[in-house]
Request: fold
Amino acid sequence: MPGTQLRGLLATIFLALLCAFSVASIAFGQESQANGDDPGTSEAVQRGAYVLRAAGCYGCHTDEKGGGAPLAGGRALKTPFGTFYSPNITPHPEHGIGAWSDAEFHDALRHGVTPAGDPYYPAFPYTSYTGMTDADIRDLKAYLFAQDPVETVNKPHELDFPYSMRFTLGIWKTLYFEAGAFEPDPAREAAWNRGAYLVRHLGHCGECHSPRGSLGAVDPDRELAGNPLGPDGGKVPNLTPAEGALAGWSESDIVWAIRDGLTPEGDYLSDSMGEVIEHGTSHLTADDLSAIAIYLKSLPPLSGP
Ligand code: HEC
Ligand code: HEC
Reply:
């Protein structure tokens, strides 16, 4: 066969293969759009694993002390309103969230509502997660749905009256909750914006480090000023650059503390912060750790707790 003809034949075969491939991918794209759900590529699963760590989902949704399976819930969270038990968020179709659509998962994090349309208790910190980007929410679901389904049955919360009535939360949400994805400040550099996103939304640092009013809402004017009554009943330190707080800390002091758990005074961070570090911040990239430090050092100094 003369060379030009052979090249022509190869080009035809190549084109035919290319067309078949694009038709297949269009068909696949349409199919996954048809039920509205993205099955998630392996890259999405990997990105989701990182989001899960930065967001600290694992610690709350795993009953490590009770020997529970990862993400299968059952961890007790004691609060002034009673004890919450985190639910199973493995993809088990009956006992986990395996039957949830992308939209239901999105609405839980962005709007704090159950698939039936009821409000969630803010013990699930959707008050911070509401700022997550659509992309991070999609990747997180791809990761969760790539895990093994676990059959653990959810435990009902043990709450005091009237907090035990879920509908009362509707009122709380109208007063204190505003949904909306994080919007970067164009006047600030990219690292500051990334830090703000990690601290205020994914890392939900203020859920422990900000003081709360009597109905449990974070005071927006005292963000990160420390909390006299933290999750374990103890004091949670002030993260603003005030005297007696982080004024004397350099950015690298902050990075050391949240990556290795060691403060400039040589103390090891423990309790609930030890857990945040172990399952969360120690796994962050160097860029993300320094973004958090840049953001914290830029805050207005507030006294407290
Ligand atoms: C501070 C502890 C805590 C953290 C951190 C946390 N959750 Fe939860 N989560 C809860 C609690 C408690 C509930 C139950 C709330 C309720 O019953 O109203 C819950 C509920 C949920 C639900 C609803 C499940 C259902 O069956 O209705 C989903 C989904 C969920 N969390 C996913 C996540 C994801 C994803 C993350 C990380 C981005 C996360 N949670 C981080 C405590 C937590
Ligand atoms: C679950 C509650 C909780 C969350 C969430 C949390 N922290 Fe903490 N943090 C604590 C507690 C409690 C301490 C005090 C620990 C100790 O003294 O051993 C602390 C201590 C610290 C310290 C040391 C401050 C000092 O003066 O010694 C830094 C820095 C810090 N946290 C940063 C963060 C950042 C950044 C985030 C978000 C990515 C975060 N924390 C999220 C509870 C939390």
Remarks:
- The pocket of heme C (ligand 2) is lined by residues 199, 203-205, 207-209, 230-231, 236-237, 239, 254, 257-258, 263, 269-273, 276, 281, 292 (CB under 6 Å).
- The domain at 190-298 is CATH 1.10.760 (Cytochrome Bc1 Complex; Chain D, domain 2).
- The CA atoms of residues 40 and 142 lie 5 Å apart.
